[in-house]
Amino acid sequence: MTTAYERVQAARQKGRPTAVYYIQHVFTDFLEMHGDRRFADDHAIVAGLAYLKGQPVTVIAIEKGQQTEDKIRRNFGSAHPEGYRKALRLMKQAEKFHRPVVCLIDTAGAFCGIGAEERGQGLAIAENLMAMMGLAVPIISILIGEGGSGGALALGVADRVWMLENAVYSVISPEGAASIVWKDAGKAADASAALHITAQDLYGFEMVERVIPEQNGDFEKVCVELREALASELKTLKSLTVEELTQQRYLKFRRIGGDEQ
Amino acid sequence: MFSKELFKKPNNRLEGEQESAPDNPAETEGAPAFPCPDCQTPLDPDSLYDLDFVCPNCGALFQMSARERVRWLTDADSFQEMDADRAPVDWLQFPEYAGKLEKAQRDSGEPEGVITGLGAIGGEPCALFVMNPQFIMGSMGAVVGEKITRLFETATERRLPVVGYTVSGGARIQEGMYSLMQMAKTSGAVLRHSEAGLLYTAVLTHPTTGGVVASFAMEGDVILAEPKALIGFAGPRVIEQTMRQKLPEGFQRSEFLLEKGFIDRIVPRANQKSELTQLLRMHREVTDR
Lengths: 261, 289
What we know:
- The structure holds 2 protein chains of 2 kinds.
- Chain A is of the alpha/beta class.
- Chain A contains 12 helices and 8 strands.
- The model of chain A has no long low-confidence stretch (mean pLDDT 97).
- Chain B is of the alpha/beta class.
- Chain B starts with 13 loop residues before the first helix and ends with a helix.
């Protein structure tokens, strides 16, 4: 039995594939698009167009980076408002061209800094949540590593939310929860269990529709499965009218913590 | 800057007497004076509603419970509360949460952290939500998200504008992902209300942070704020730890957000009823045309 904290450690493991790996192995002909047309290009968000088994899709991903220099450039996968605004710009573009959106999520959280606050981090996330609720094209979001709170949810309001076997998704980091609740950041393992943040937990809560097996670390195989699963699910979603699609998306989140649960 | 005292429950008799005599403040007559937490000026608790919960000497804003705020803001006898008894659920059986909820309920006299309902401000009908700083500092659990969602849905059905007063330390950690998902859920309800062409005015009060800022607090057509309120995604302590530097004075206060262009207006308490009334009236006239 793998503990919640072991999953947290696996999700953060050095050398674990990050978003760019999936972009290269699940999709073909990726064409990156830069910038939010407002302020800057946030390298924590990698976004652009690609083919998924021949059909054009918009891919939006949070990239933590692999080597030290790359990690610094990508701010360790903690996006600023301009990153979320780039994501929103490309979602709106996908909607215009009737292209599905695939989001890959891997972040400890939205960046907490002076510049991020000055440029409206809260607003940027809020705008994404609202826009994704109404977006007229299918959205599938996949948690590939860490799903850190609002900064992850800002790409996570989707028709389908999937998680890799060892991915975690939480309202707060286990360390943060431990230090607030028990005044002891060292109790992160206890907090990981108490918060119920594993793919298996969230599948049980019906917040996640599919858990993708990690094939004992053979991530090429994981990518093959993802490609097939995405293609088949997008086919299902594309058969819905826009009204059905957005209504079902709303109701999926609407149920959580309501009377039916 | 606010003193730490303002985060605590104001020490005045009106608090406990709300439930037994909501329409008769005269019953508190003869209450002993209590000092303003900032300047220590002795104040008569009976005068708080007339003072708009602001110290007449130093201008400090007293913390208002959600129920005091509703009573202060809405026209007499107009407010009909919705989902009044909706109580929290310990979804995760989170350690020590049951006791924490019990204490919050006892201290606040409320089952949860937000009051919702239909009422009127200056004769203008609206749907209203008011978050409660005295219930785990307005933290957003599933009941908070559910009640606000239901309010927006009711407002959409009845074609009513929404006025929402926010105060929040952020997500309710003990409800884990049930808490985080309320951000998505409430945003969906706000979107539907907005698409119906209806007005949503958010009024941000001290402090409004975390998941509430990253969802419905910033989704208003009009966003107002009380003076000097702390408003931000990340709390100042978290930013100081991340940046390893002291934050400038006034950072993340209402005045700072106004300067940066993220809120429409800062409205002192004395003007809030009249400004909200004007906004509601202007939008009623538009939809009637």
